[in-house]
Amino acid sequence: MPTTAIAGPAPDPMGAGRTPTPEILAPEILAPETIAHLEERARHVRLETIRLIAIAKVGHYSSTFSCAELFATLYYDAMRLRHGEPRWPDRDRFLMGKGHAAVGLYPLLADWGFFPKELLDGYTRLGNPLGDHPDMTKVPGVDFSSGSIGHALSAGLGMVMGGRMMGRRFDVYVMLGDGEMQEGQVWEAAMAAAHQKAGNLIAIVDRNGYQLDGQVDEVMGIEPLADKWRAFGWEVHEVDGHDVAALATLFRRLKQDKTRRKPACVIARTLKGKGVGYMEREAGWHLGYLAPEDEAAAIAEIMGQPASPAIAQKDAAQGDAR
Amino acid sequence: MPTTAIAGPAPDPMGAGRTPTPEILAPEILAPETIAHLEERARHVRLETIRLIAIAKVGHYSSTFSCAELFATLYYDAMRLRHGEPRWPDRDRFLMGKGHAAVGLYPLLADWGFFPKELLDGYTRLGNPLGDHPDMTKVPGVDFSSGSIGHALSAGLGMVMGGRMMGRRFDVYVMLGDGEMQEGQVWEAAMAAAHQKAGNLIAIVDRNGYQLDGQVDEVMGIEPLADKWRAFGWEVHEVDGHDVAALATLFRRLKQDKTRRKPACVIARTLKGKGVGYMEREAGWHLGYLAPEDEAAAIAEIMGQPASPAIAQKDAAQGDAR
Amino acid sequence: MTAAETLAGPVNPGSWQYRQLNARAPGLSYLSDALSALVEDGHPVMAGTADLQYSNGLARFAARYPDRFIQFGISEQNMVSAAAGIATTGMTPFVATFASFLGLLCCEQIRMDVAYSALPVRLIGHHAGIALGFYGTSHHATEDLAIMRSIAGLTVVNPADGPQLAAAIKASADHPEPIYFRIGRGQEPNVYDDLPDFRFGKAIEHETGTDLTIIACGTMVHPSREAVRALRASGLSVGLIDMHTIKPLDREAVLAAAERSRIILTVEEHNILGGLGGAVAEVMAEAGTKAVLIRHGIRDEYSLIAPPTHLYRHYQLDAAGIETVVHDILS
Amino acid sequence: MTAAETLAGPVNPGSWQYRQLNARAPGLSYLSDALSALVEDGHPVMAGTADLQYSNGLARFAARYPDRFIQFGISEQNMVSAAAGIATTGMTPFVATFASFLGLLCCEQIRMDVAYSALPVRLIGHHAGIALGFYGTSHHATEDLAIMRSIAGLTVVNPADGPQLAAAIKASADHPEPIYFRIGRGQEPNVYDDLPDFRFGKAIEHETGTDLTIIACGTMVHPSREAVRALRASGLSVGLIDMHTIKPLDREAVLAAAERSRIILTVEEHNILGGLGGAVAEVMAEAGTKAVLIRHGIRDEYSLIAPPTHLYRHYQLDAAGIETVVHDILS
Ligand SMILES: Cc1ncc(C[n+]2csc(CCOP(=O)(O)OP(=O)(O)O)c2C)c(N)n1
Ligand SMILES: Cc1ncc(C[n+]2csc(CCOP(=O)(O)OP(=O)(O)O)c2C)c(N)n1
Ligand SMILES: [Mg+2]
Ligand SMILES: [Mg+2]
User: Could you give the ipTM of this predicted complex?
Assistant: First the structure.
């Protein structure tokens, strides 16, 4: 684990302009520096999330923390992107069924040069393009708008089909919440993707165990989840969603396999709130606000310092901006 | 197979008022008369379908023929009903996701004394309550309206839940088309029913292999279907949907098992158009109209006489009433 | 090229589908043919449907351009969101299903993924109104104009016939907004000859009159025209406007008619709330016109079931019915 | 009973949910409490939500009557159709989710399974309009009134505050039609005291005026009242009507106001097309009133994102904004 302390908006150790070319990298040669870099990027997601939600005064910390390593691995290892070219037609696409975690994505899009970093500072303020949910009409680099849970897999499938008609091949990654599995449209899209042999469609389920009203299994059970995807004609991979090495290896393998005719579903086992102990333990943090005095402690915990016992008792401070 | 010829609206050999009490009948003692009766009722469904569509001048023969034995077994063996009491609160419920087969249901509802048989003669005519799709606001005995494919399983689940709250226990049967499996709402309902342990909910999939635009597997493949239902937490039974003995045995067994906590899905393998050879062979019959001169031959075939070669070539005559 | 040549696969020339496409609903061919013309002109269009390729005639397009056709099965919402995804790649998708399922079942996907996302998706809601007769309310769409009209950034068009649909599809090639096309069942008599003039948002004035002006849309233009002919022959000064674009509405046309006539009568195969009548009411009430508005259509109720022609008669939505309505108003 | 007592399970008194229910959105408790009152009066009501029991406060009802509560997870359409099924058994279900998902995503299920089927289902669309601020368009509902109004057989109510919501829920016990209740986010200041008089379809006249009458609904009643006070204090004769029932609309109230005032100004947290403004326009245009209509609301566009209070200011939907709008009109 790297020990460099990062305060505020993080620098970009590997240079923002790097275009990952995972095709030529065998999974075996995942270098320690790569792992360290991806872990650092995941921390960056968490830290920026805290910083931005402090502006909004309410937001989805825990939904973002659970997929921080996914964001990092996708945007700094798996996806083919070009710095400063958010509309490059051959880029890989990324869609968020769980659009409410966009706060963690924006910093990465800024880092890729898709829009000026200063925009981050006005997160959710009148006139700023960055809201709780990602908006393709406002934010360069957002491949599709979301917010209404359940549409994204359909839209991603559409991109695959459109790409096919336009004679382009790119991969389409769609990140879904585990609560999102309850929306029927997801299964319409899942069935259609298998039927269309959309091998370049990759669904990622952030299996963090919680949705708004509590534990997914209590609210509306979705298990056996892998069986569901398999029965809908998908190839299923289960992985530790906080292990960037495992994630990168898996995504590289998926990218290298150009003959796959089944769409692939990655079930990423995660912790909702990962990185801040009391958020991991309290479902109410789905939507919350860290009082300013708690921010530093949360940041310290994310940076690898143990949380103080007082903090471990905390629950979410009240947001007033909803 | 019984040989009694039935012309026009059939008589009711077993007396319309019979309330089946399958709880006390062991599956083993399915008497030959019972089988013959159910087969006769299925033929009645087909013959009435032909008669009524002749009034409408266009209709869903083949969708109805595939589930004729299902209608017969449910309405004359499985379901708890009371003659003349369509709103008896403890009755079993029947819902049709594939509402476009209602033309085959109406004659049975009339037979149960839920409305005067004369109404059948005005099928689809202005002011008559009987349309292509079943309408609970107009037709006594119709437990829920349909026509928009995909809602019925949700509504059926609601009946189970409502019954529970009202302290009533009845079984709810929901007949679904195999094309209907493509509607996401079906999977929302399937997931919810398993979560709610709706053991008295029974879904029946009329697996006739065709939908409007052609073969289900070509239009939008749904296999492996049993795996899908199982992965959604249902108990699955596969059965020959034209074998009334097999159907009755299965439904009796399901009814007797009062401890079941999983909802049950019956996948009934059927032939779309079953009973009229050329309809079985030509998908275009999803919606069609038998020219008056072909009616007698179709009736003869249903009654067990071989179809003439000329008829076997036929396709659907043109309906003009759509 | 005849349908027999364009149809492939399970549809053979003697079959039911063949006759449906050719004889029963001649209006259906306009959709496929107009799309084919766009393809031939080099436009990156594609088509999709949700298990209704014979009802909307897209089987004809599918047979000609199989690579530009997607069959979505019975999953309309997936179709609309996927169409939006397709549109992000540079293709212009035309997706079609019954208006009841497109305009109602997919309303949120249309708002979010299509209209709000400002993607060039074209939505074809066919068999709108009560055209599906005894299929009943599930298959009727007498709310879709009101619903689609409430969605910002969406153009809403209700062509009167096949030729006007074809003209609108042709014109759509340069239209920046997503579009909802609301059409009938393809059995309506034509009002126009091939490819009439068409401009989005520009109504077509057929007749001017001082006693009353009918503003009609979609399938109601033809019977209104018949009615207007009879009324004028009987000496009444009755005008007629084909308001094919419900949104953006041609305000000037409404105001000019309201200036000229004492009475404006809207005629639509739709609830009299919120649709064409509602749109015209908004213009008139805001302008404070002297004319009064009367709305004719489905009177905020669910239609009976019956064959469509019987329903049109019953609800006075055929030529004779409209003529009677006008006579009753003017006497 | 405090919320602390009613909440069970994972919600503990020190938690975020607790504070949300009690401090942050005090208006939310009215829904649960009004439903509880119905239970206590012996009505067979139940409640359901789609993973939003803290946003709509139904957690409070669920804790009190766990057997009368169903959690549907994130599947709104299943919830609505299931509610219809529940209603067939004699229970009266109240199902609640964000208005964007209820009024748009479930529009077809509402028409078919609830309204057309004439079942006593009560639909609660909360956080309507732009109340979800920077959650963006997916979470805004500025079309739901237009959509729900187009559906025959559905009563559409937009209470001004918690007390009026409670009164409407109480009154709903004898209401034969299914109802769509459109409410805010529970943070609005109250207009009324506890359980004010409420009759479906009977508007509430706050003030009469000759220069202009504001007809407002829902969350816009409170700022309109503030604005009217200021305007009257400055010598203008401005009236105010709370048009809580959008359908059936109180025609008499509209016509009386249009008789008295030169100008009618509708104010709604909704698109100015098809909603309250549209409904009032239809009445005025058909009656041929002398008054002119001006519609204030969201002008057929998608709202910016920002905290809701910032948006209300930006779109002149707060008291100061409404006052300015009226001043601009009258000068
Ligand atoms: C269609 C729809 N219904 C409801 C919501 C409200 N909502 C926002 S987040 C959320 C819970 C999501 O849970 P999950 O999918 O597990 O995502 P997580 O945050 O746990 O990653 C809900 C219900 C929504 N955004 N869209
Ligand atoms: C939501 C919806 N979409 C489309 C239709 C039009 N439609 C009527 S029947 C049918 C095909 C049904 O196929 P299937 O479910 O297999 O039923 P079958 O007639 O074969 O038993 C379609 C698409 C509909 N009724 N509802
Ligand atoms: Mg989750
Ligand atoms: Mg089938």
Answer: 0.94
